[in-house]
C-alpha cells in the first residue's frame, strides 16, 4: 500500500528516528537491540505472525509498543521512519519493496532475497524511491574486514590466487533445530501470513519455527551462511562476484525432515577486474563437524597468507633462496653431472645464524568489546540521517545473495552455473 509522496517521513540530523521491527524472532531482536544502542533511535512498533513474540516485545520494550500481525499496518503509520526486516527469507523482498514504496528506510536481514528472480525488483525499488536500504551482513561495516582490505590493497600478501572461507558447526542449534513454543496453535499464529507466496499447507508449526530447514521459506546453508562469506569477501576485495559457480554436498546427519543439505562446498572462479587479480574461491559449510565451531577466511597470496576471523593475521615465510633439486631417480652419473652444475651456480654454505629465514606473523586485534553488528546499525542510521548511500545497499546485497543462491541451483540441479557478475544474473 504505497503512501503518497508527500507523506514520506523526513529525518533531520538531530531528530529522533522512530523504527519498527517486522519479524521479531532471534535476529529481529538482536537487530532491535543493536539499533537501540544508536543515540536518538526509538522503537515504536513491532510486527510478527506469532502472538507470543508480540507479547514478548511488549515485555522487553514496553507496553506502549504498537504491535500487529500485519506489517502493512506498520507501513501505513506516518510516525515510523525506518523498519528492520527480520522475517524468514521468503518475505524479505516483498516487505522491503513495500516499505520503500511507503517511504520507509529499510534494514533488511540477509540474504536480501530468497530467489535470484527477486533481486532486480528490490534494486529497482531502491533506485526509484531513493530510500536507504542496507542489508544485514554486518561484516561489511567491520573494522576487522576494513583492516584486511587495507592490508591486501597495500600488497601485504603479494598477489593472491585463492580465497578459502568456511563455517563449521557441530550442535543441534547450530544446525537450526530451534525450540518450538509449546503453545503454538492456529489461534496465536497467523499461518497464512507466514506462508505468504510459499505453497499453501496445513498448519505445521515446525515449518515456522525451523523455517531454515525448508526450501519454501529459507535458502539453505548457502543463503544463510555462504552469503555472509560472499559479502565479507566482496567488501574486502571490492569485488562484484564470480563468473562460474559449482556447489556440491549432501544431507549427511540432521535428517529431521529438512529438505536442504547440512554439508555444502562451493567453488567459484572470479575474473580479473580493476580491483583484484583472477582467483578461485572455495567455501565450505559443515554442520557435522566433530571438532566444533570455527569460521574464517584465508586469503592465499604469493608473499603470505592473510586470515580473517575475530582478528586479522598476516603470516609470511619467504621462499628458499635456492630452488633445490629432485635428482635421486636419475642415473648416478647424471646425478653427479646435475650436482656439479647446481653447486657451480649455488655454492654450498654451512647453515649459520644468517641463513635463518624470518617467519613472521602479525596480528591485528580490534578493541575489546568491538561489535560489527552495532557498527553496521550505526552506519545505517547515519545514512538515514545524512541521506548518503550505504556500502551494503540493494545492489551490493544482491551481488552477495546472487552467487549464494546460484550455489543452490548448482547443488539441486547438479550442474555448474555460468554467472554474470555485472548483470547479476545466471547467464543463459
Ligand atoms: N546477520 C546475521 O548475522 C543473522 C543471524 C541470524 C539470522 N539472520 C537473518 O535474520 C532473519 C530472521 O532469522 P531468525 O533467526 O531471527 O529467525 P526467527 O525464526 O527467529 O525469526 C523470524 C521471525 O519472523 C516472524 N515472521 C514470519 N513471517 C512473518 C511475516 N510475514 N511478518 C512478520 N513476521 C513474520 C516469525 O514468527 C519469527 O518471529 C533471516 O533472514 C536470517 O537469515 C541474520
**CATH topology heading of the largest domain:** Dihydrodipicolinate Reductase, domain 2
The CATH architecture designation of the largest domain is 2-Layer Sandwich
| Number of extended strands | 16
Can you tell me the overall shape?
elongated
- What is the assigned CATH homologous superfamily of the largest domain? Dihydrodipicolinate Reductase, domain 2
**Cα Rg:** 25 Å
Q: Report the top-level CATH class of the largest domain.
A: Alpha Beta
Fraction in helix: 25-40%
Low-confidence stretches: 1-9
Instruction: Please identify the structural class as seen in this structure.
Output: alpha/beta
Supply the number of structural domains. 2
Adjacency order of strands in the biggest sheet:
14-13-12-11-7-10-9-8-15-16
Explain what this protein looks like in three dimensions.
The chain is an alpha/beta fold and 428 residues long. It folds into two domains: 5-139, NAD(P)-binding Rossmann-like Domain (Rossmann fold, 3-Layer(aba) Sandwich), CATH 3.40.50.720; 144-298 and 403-426, 2-Layer Sandwich (Dihydrodipicolinate Reductase, domain 2), CATH 3.30.360. Helices cover 32% and strands 20% of the residues. The protein contains twelve helices and 16 strands. The chain has helices at 26-35, 51-61, 71-75, 92-101, 119-129, 143-153, 191-195, 205-209, 220-237, 332-345, 372-386, 394-413, and strands at 17-22, 41-47, 66-68, 82-85, 105-108, 133-135, 160-168, 244-250, 263-270, 279-286, 294-301, 305-308, 312-316, 360-364, 417-420, 425-426. A ten-stranded mixed sheet has the order 14-13-12-11-7-10-9-8-15-16. It has a six-stranded parallel sheet with strand order 3-2-1-4-5-6, with helices on both faces. Helix 1 (26-35) links the parallel strand 1 (17-22) and strand 2 (41-47). Helix 5 runs antiparallel to helix 12 and helix 6 (143-153) packs across helix 9 (220-237). The relative contact order is 0.17. The structure holds nicotinamide-adenine-dinucleotide (NAD). Nicotinamide-adenine-dinucleotide binds at residues 22-28, 47-50, 53, 71, 86-89, 91, 109-110, 136, 138, 193-194, 196, 208, 211, 224. Nicotinamide-adenine-dinucleotide (NAD) is lined by residues 22-28, 47-50, 53, 71, 86-89, 91, 109-110, 136, 138, 193-194, 196, 208, 211, 224.
